[in-house]
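Budget justification aside, the reviewers requested a transparent look at the raw inputs and outputs of the sequence design task funded under Objective 1. We therefore reproduce one unedited record. The lines immediately below are the structure tokens for a 192-residue chain.
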């Protein structure tokens, strides 16, 4: 026999589900998604700013050499990835706020959100991996091939690119967390 408190609690839960009110765990999930997406926008915008403003000129034996992000295809690729991810993060922020917080969101919305998060995660790690490889060679060189380390001469430029790369990796981690949250939300909605 159920106690009056148990009947009252189950009645409240049925009203909550039928009226579209979200549970505390759903609200926490939505808040976490919003925060991670805002962080992704902030990290990518900061990475873009640091990358675009990085540059250094050095004089060696009377010749002036310039180091710019645009001279490296990997850094241009990372900049393009950061720009795309920043724009799509802002759009997904609007999508999450408007569509998924409404009652009765469809399972397809959660699937599209999961798909978006996975694409952004893969895009970020590809840009980060390319820039990391070039940055490693710039900092440490590759003796067997004959490529010398250049960061000893253009340290300011290398350090700014390192900051940009760290910000991009933080964006990757934010999107990895978002993909996990989206997948778990998709699975929980599929079993309801």
């Amino acid at each position: 026999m159920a106690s009056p408190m148990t009947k009252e609690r189950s009645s409240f839960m049925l009203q909550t589900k039928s009226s579209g009110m979200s549970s505390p765990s759903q609200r926490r999930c939505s808040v976490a998604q919003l925060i991670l997406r805002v962080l992704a926008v902030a990290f990518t915008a900061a990475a873009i700013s640091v990358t675009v403003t990085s540059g250094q000129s050095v004089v060696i034996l009377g010749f002036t050499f310039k180091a710019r992000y645009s001279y490296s295809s990997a850094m241009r690729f990372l900049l393009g990835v950061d720009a795309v991810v920043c724009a799509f993060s802002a759009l997904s922020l609007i999508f999450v706020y408007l569509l998924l917080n409404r009652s009765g969101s469809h399972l397809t919305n959660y699937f599209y959100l999961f798909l978006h998060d996975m694409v952004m995660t893969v895009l970020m790690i590809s840009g980060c991996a390319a820039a990391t490889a070039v940055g490693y060679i710039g900092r440490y060189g590759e003796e067997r091939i004959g490529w010398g380390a250049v960061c000893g001469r253009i340290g300011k430029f290398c350090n700014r690119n390192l900051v940009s790369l760290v910000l991009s990796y933080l964006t990757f981690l934010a999107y990895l967390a978002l993909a996990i949250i989206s997948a778990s939300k998709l699975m929980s909605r599929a079993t309801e």
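The CA atoms of residues 97 and 158 lie 38 Å apart. The longest helix spans residues 155-190. Computational costs for records of this kind are itemized in the attached budget.
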